[in-house]
Backbone:
């Protein structure tokens, strides 16, 4: 487990400290009148003012952070000064590890940490491979029949099957898959739900009830001794924790289960969908990856992982990481007042032309050629950095690479249409269906 940074006193203001440059209110008003995406305002602020910039949507300025050294200051070096107030998905994930804070977060992260590194990851290798084989078998069938299918839905099915096997020891069955379709429905709805928690919960009450019912059945099955055909999984770890730690109530186990479902399949499915769309536009990238080495070779695997890494550069798992300044601070020489909303944007950091050459170009060689990536770890953070970085980094990279090992040599999707817009919610996702047939 990463050790949280020790609380420290913020530096005293110095004569050289400056106010964060603020975007002209007229530009903000023009953006508001045009109904633009928030990312457009962010991009305007960064382009005009640099890697630490402010804009005002209310009475207080919001500070946007995209410069690598400032990103590292906020997320990795001083997380006690820049804290999470409330996770946007709390309505869905409750007090799961993504939303937890303080001692509760430390305890929950400690329990899960070992499951996603080293020996813990090796427990899930066979489950990842089984889910990939099941996905490849479906694509084989699509190739034989010429059936039109939705690539995004297929990626979601694969990722959900993978995490469900890892949680319960069972492959995903059709009934559970139908019920858990409520998860992406709630995730997509969250950015537009009312601020009042009661009203928000009412708006997705049916979906939450379906998710709760699946979680309740799964927890009860584990308590009844059901380890599944693939053996005990992450849910068994959570239920066992209840025997030694009273904090692990049924509600917290449910919250952790749903957190792992959301984090373990929604982001991976979105990344893989983007990857197939990018390969459709850049077929040479697929050819180069397959030519890197024979099936199963380290060279092939490295090239496939580079496809995933470059996709995550363009479309990181979380495009915005909100924090609140818990105290006055100096950030890259700028004064930050306590209570200021600070937004770190991996999406814009990854598209900064001062950090990445030709940043809009899909070029996986950035991740196989030395010197093509920013040296500062704050320059590439698709899963965050610091003590609150995503626990499932290695899991997500492994499952994505294994699926590509099974699909790319045999099949090429032929899209009938592709989305023309991007939705910026909790994740960055294609805004529309992705119907395709597949060559085999």
Residues:
């Amino acid at each position: 487990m990463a050790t949280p940074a020790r609380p420290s006193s913020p530096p005293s203001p110095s004569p050289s400290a400056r106010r964060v440059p603020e975007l002209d209110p007229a530009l903000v008003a023009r953006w508001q009148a045009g109904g633009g995406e928030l990312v457009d305002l962010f991009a305007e602020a960064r382009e005009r003012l640099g890697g630490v910039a402010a804009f005002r949507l209310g009475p207080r300025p919001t500070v946007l952070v995209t410069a690598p050294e400032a990103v590292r200051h906020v997320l990795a070096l001083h997380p006690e000064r820049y804290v999470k107030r409330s996770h946007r998905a709390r309505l869905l994930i409750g007090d799961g590890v993504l939303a937890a804070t303080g001692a509760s977060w430390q305890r929950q992260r400690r329990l899960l940490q070992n499951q996603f590194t080293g020996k813990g990851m090796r427990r899930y290798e066979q489950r990842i491979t089984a889910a990939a084989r099941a996905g490849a078998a479906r694509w084989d069938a699509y190739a034989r029949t010429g059936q039109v299918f939705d690539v995004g839905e297929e990626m979601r099915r694969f990722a959900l099957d993978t995490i469900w096997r890892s949680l319960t020891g069972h492959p995903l069955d059709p009934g559970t898959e139908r019920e858990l379709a409520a998860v992406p429905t709630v995730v997509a709805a969250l950015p537009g739900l009312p601020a009042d928690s009661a009203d928000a919960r009412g708006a997705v009450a049916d979906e939450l009830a379906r998710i709760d019912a699946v979680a309740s059945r799964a927890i009860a099955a584990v308590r009844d001794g059901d380890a599944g055909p693939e053996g005990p999984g992450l849910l068994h770890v959570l239920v066992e924790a209840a025997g030694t730690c009273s904090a692990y109530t049924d509600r917290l186990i449910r919250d952790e289960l749903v957190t792992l479902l959301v984090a373990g399949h929604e982001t991976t499915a979105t990344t893989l969908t983007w990857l197939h769309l990018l390969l459709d536009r850049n077929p040479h990238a697929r050819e180069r990856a397959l030519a890197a080495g024979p099936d199963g070779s380290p060279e092939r695997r490295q090239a496939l992982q580079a496809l995933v890494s470059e996709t995550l550069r363009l479309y990181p798992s979380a495009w915005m990481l909100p924090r609140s300044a818990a105290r006055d601070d100096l950030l890259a020489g700028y004064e930050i007042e306590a209570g200021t909303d600070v937004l770190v944007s991996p999406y814009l950091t990854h598209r900064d032309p001062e950090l990445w050459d030709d940043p809009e170009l899909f070029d996986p060689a950035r991740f196989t050629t030395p010197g093509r990536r920013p040296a500062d770890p704050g320059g590439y953070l698709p899963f965050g950095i610091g003590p609150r970085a995503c626990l499932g980094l290695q899991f997500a990279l492994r499952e994505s690479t294994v699926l590509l090992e099974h699909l790319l040599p045999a099949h090429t999707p032929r899209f009938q249409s592709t989305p023309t817009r991007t939705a910026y919610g909790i994740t960055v996702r294609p805004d529309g269906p992705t119907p395709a047939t597949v060559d085999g």
Notes: The first strand starts at residue 18 and ends at 19. Residues 1-6 have pLDDT under 50 and may be disordered. The domain at 27-439 is CATH 1.10.630.10 (Cytochrome p450).
